[in-house]
Amino acid sequence: MPAFPILISSWNGLPALSRAAGLAASGTPLLDAIVEGIGLVEDDPEEMSVGYGGLPNEDGIVELDAAVMHGPLHRGAAIAALRGVRRAAAVALEVMRRTEHSLLVGEGAHRFALALGFKDEDLLTPRARKAWLDWKASLSDRDAWLSENQASSGFGQALWAGSTGPNAKADAPQSPATTGHSDGHPGGQTPAPGDSRQHAPKVPFTFGTIHVSGLDANGDLFSCTSTSGLSYKIAGRAGDSPILGAGLYTDNGIGSAGATGRGEAVMQVCGAHSIVSAMEDGLTPTGACLKVLKKIADRTREKRLLAADGRPNFNVTFYAIRKDGVTGAASMHQGYEHVVQEGASGQVRPCAYLFEKSKSPGC
Ligand code: GLY
């Protein structure tokens, strides 16, 4: 007899799942418990891919995306490009509860959150501000922002020089191959070699996100995804996380799924919905995740998104739970983990993967 709730999350979800399971055990409805658990991660200034402390957009402003889905009601709602409010998942839940809308964005989402009493604050931590300034300095040797190389070799020396000089920012040594592919996993906060958004060593970079899907003791399914999205994005960019069917999807009769990683790739295959459909067709949760990852890999054709061996130079990880409580997760590349919670017991598990580390330069 399994212990309930059964929850699956991205690697960064251990505290969220533990909190959600504890709340559910004392009678909190599972979706509220999941949103509250995710709130712990949104509050954490050290987690640079979610909520307070998330990496900002190119203007230095943190913009959050989040969504929830409620299996029994088959309802979902989301907010995108929300500024100044750290509890993005809770705001999405209120959109679902208090409105007939499915998606509020930007200034409207902000005003909605403030009307409900959410606190308005600057979400940019000193650590995230430093990362943003380092990113700006690494972009070009033809602007007034000095990189570490330029500053240490004499003020202004390479400022207006061509990009080929020894102090030029564009010549800064690039990150070595990392174990991850910029989806916020430890070791994955710098882009893989070949990624066109590779800026400079030590500049944190992420598509990181938290996703949680869960099954309660009544057999009902719920999900939530929350993120600060792609670091240094163009203001107003929304990824897959607030898009029902992409960053999350829950069908109470079949299962629930979600995504972390490169949102543009997930949206282009309707990722989470495709996984739930594959489970409906009889695939296991892991098999369904792998099928949709293969679909992404097969349809990634632009050179800027491919490593030298022809594989995608980015990561996506999918998470799924079936109506009977079986869970599974898979990543594009080897080396990622996820978390599964059954009742009071949480466990970090390796993700299945499409491409082996050793065969893919940059994995
Ligand atoms: N998966 C998060 C994003 O791309 O924004």
Describe the structure concisely:
The protein is α+β, with helices and mostly antiparallel strands. The protein contains 9 helices and 13 strands. Helix 2 runs antiparallel to helix 3 (88-98).
What do these coordinates show?
The chain is an alpha+beta fold. The protein folds into two domains: 272 residues, Glutamine Phosphoribosylpyrophosphate, subunit 1, domain 1; 73 residues, no CATH class. The chain is 26% helix and 21% strand. The protein has nine helices and 13 strands. Helix 3 links the parallel strand 3 and strand 4. The site of glycine (GLY) has 12 residues, from strand 8.
Topology (elements, then pairings):
Blueprint: E1 6-10, H1 14-25, H2 30-43, E2 64-70, E3 75-82, H3 88-98, E4 103-105, H4 106-115, H5 126-139, H6 148-152, E5 210-215, E6 221-227, E7 248-251, E8 255-261, H7 263-267, H8 271-280, H9 285-298, E9 316-322, E10 327-333, E11 337-342, E12 345-350, E13 352-355
The site of glycine has 12 residues, from strand 8.
Could you give a short account of the major beta sheet? 8 strands, mixed
What is the CATH third-level topology name of the largest domain?
Glutamine Phosphoribosylpyrophosphate, subunit 1, domain 1
Strand neighbour order, sheet with most strands: 4-3-2-6-5-1-11-12
Bound molecules: glycine
Q: What structural keywords apply?
A:
Glutamine Phosphoribosylpyrophosphate, subunit 1, domain 1; globular; alpha+beta; 363 residues; 2 domains; binds glycine
